[in-house]
Specification:
It is built from nine helices and no strands. The protein is an all-alpha fold and 203 residues long. The protein has two domains: 68 residues, Orthogonal Bundle (Diphtheria Toxin Repressor, domain 2); 112 residues, Diphtheria Toxin Repressor, domain 2, CATH 1.10.60.
Length: 203
């Protein structure tokens, strides 16, 4: 009972505060696992921590071994400055959010271009350096494909239209300084998002 008493006049960190700090460091260490290797390497972390992160990535599932490895990462995190890590994680999350927003914007444009005749003019007014002939061709092909029975669709024009629109959306975002924070990690995200969309399209 008395062991848990914390003197309010004691300026040293309380046991409960130390526990909270340790838990926060472990959580930050876990978030390091979500960063691309290039971003982690740029942080110049101590070798023991880098080794622990690599081992945690190799351990699959949520069993006891993974839990112990994450605890080790938390302990090693006590010996590094957490500020640059927090900044890197925050920047990466912002980049992912921006990339996701741009993918959704590209998808909305694709649907509009296929479903609305008036969308083409609005698109040309929004984006620069558009190959109008190629865009018209992809729209026609995508409309023709979608008119087919599901078992006869191949989705190629639908996918190519998305890739073209996505390139314009990302180019505009870069020009406005709204893209690039999540570049390495999300290199595969557009393809994954489009693959999932294609599966819905074919159903």
């Amino acid at each position: 009972m008395y062991d848990e008493y914390e003197d309010p006049d004691d300026e040293r960190p309380s046991k409960s505060q130390l526990k909270r700090d340790m838990a926060a460091l472990q959580a930050l260490g876990v978030e390091l696992l979500s960063l691309p290797d290039k971003r982690v390497a740029a942080l110049n972390l101590p070798e023991p921590l880098m080794d622990a992160l690599a081992e945690a990535r190799r351990i699959k599932g949520a069993h006891e071994g993974k839990r112990r490895q994450l605890q080790l990462i938390g302990k090693l995190m006590r010996h590094v400055d957490p500020a640059p890590i927090r900044e890197a994680v925050a920047e990466f999350k912002l980049g992912r959010a921006q990339d996701s927003l741009q993918l959704h914007q590209a998808e909305r444009w694709r649907v509009r271009l296929v479903e609305e005749d008036s969308a083409l003019q609005a698109y040309l007014q929004t984006f620069d350096e558009v190959d109008v002939q190629q865009l018209r061709s992809l729209i026609r092909a995508a409309r023709k494909d979608r008119a087919q029975a599901p078992e006869q669709r191949n989705g190629r024009a639908w996918r190519e239209l998305f890739q073209m629109v996505k390139a314009h959306v990302l180019a505009e975002a870069r020009a406005n300084g709204l893209s690039g924070a999540g570049d390495e990690a999300d290199a595969d995200a557009p393809r994954e998002a489009d693959d999932a969309d294609e599966a819905r399209h074919d159903d």
